[in-house]
């Protein structure tokens, strides 16, 4: 199996959190019971060193039926400010490393918010750590027509109900080949709980998802029959010690989604 190359982490969440009273504990990452999930998948590209780069993502409802939501740091970083030359999204990925081109949908365009300016470093841009990717069609069909899609909601995120953070963890003890998830109560970070870059982010504690889940969907109202849910955030950063933060979509993201889905 090709070696996996993971994008540089945006920032460790632990450096941007302050002391927070322990809330309801989230479950440890576990294989997603409804895997493979057709609307959730892996972004794969060949890096310059020959290894495969990867992030996670999810199909979202759009007029063109061809949009994936992921994290901006999967697309542009200070070390690599331009997207990879050829990226594929594989819906329902499950041990498909050898077939990602055959089973995947090629990314035609990358859409990151104007605020995601990585020329000055990562700290101040974390509130903009989301992106939408436009996929090519295959055989005259869109990815959404073929696999379905998740609904997208925008801020403010109600602090009620539960959320599942899904993705393909590739750092030990995982291998990036199967879909895993953590679940817990929705917890929006406010003043006194985090430093400015992570305010408004969603926090899950006791979640040992590792690198590779970047850009993975945070879903509520999952419907096993439809294989989709409501996307409220994408995986942004993690502490490496059990705290992970999802980045919700601000109102300004509507325009970006419309651009990707037009």
Automatic annotation (TrEMBL):
The keyword Isomerase does not apply. The keyword Glycosyltransferase does not apply. Pfam families: Trypsin_2 (PF13365). InterPro entries: Glutamyl_endopeptidase, Peptidase_S1_PA, Peptidase_S1_PA_chymotrypsin. Residues 1-29 form the signal peptide. Keywords: Signal. This is Trypsin-like peptidase domain-containing protein. It comes from Streptomyces boetiae.
């Amino acid at each position: 199996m090709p070696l996996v190359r993971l994008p540089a982490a945006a920032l460790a969440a632990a450096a941007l959190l302050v002391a927070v009273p322990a809330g309801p504990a989230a479950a440890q990452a576990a294989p997603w019971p409804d895997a493979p999930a057709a609307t959730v998948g892996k972004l794969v590209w060949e890096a310059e060193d020959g290894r495969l780069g990867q992030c996670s993502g999810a199909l979202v409802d759009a007029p063109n039926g061809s949009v994936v939501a992921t994290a901006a740091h999967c697309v542009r970083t200070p070390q690599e400010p331009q997207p990879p030359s050829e990226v594929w999204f594989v819906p329902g990925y499950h041990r498909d490393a050898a077939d990602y081109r055959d089973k995947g949908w090629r990314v035609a365009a990358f859409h990151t918010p104007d605020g995601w300016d990585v020329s000055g470093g990562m700290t101040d841009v974390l509130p903009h750590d989301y992106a939408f990717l436009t996929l090519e069609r295959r055989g005259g069909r869109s990815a959404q027509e073929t696999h379905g899609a998740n609904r997208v909601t925008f801020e403010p995120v109600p602090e009620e109900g539960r959320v599942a953070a899904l993705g393909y963890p590739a750092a030990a003890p995982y291998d990036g080949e199967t879909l895993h998830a953590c679940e817990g109560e929705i917890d929006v970070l406010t003043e006194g709980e985090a430093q400015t870059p992570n305010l408004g982010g969603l926090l899950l504690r006791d979640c040992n998802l590792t690198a590779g889940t970047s850009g993975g969907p945070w879903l509520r109202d999952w419907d096993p029959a439809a294989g989709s849910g409501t996307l409220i955030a994408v995986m942004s950063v993690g502490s490496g010690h059990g705290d992970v933060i999802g980045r919700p979509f601000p109102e300004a993201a509507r325009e970006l989604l419309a651009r990707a889905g037009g």
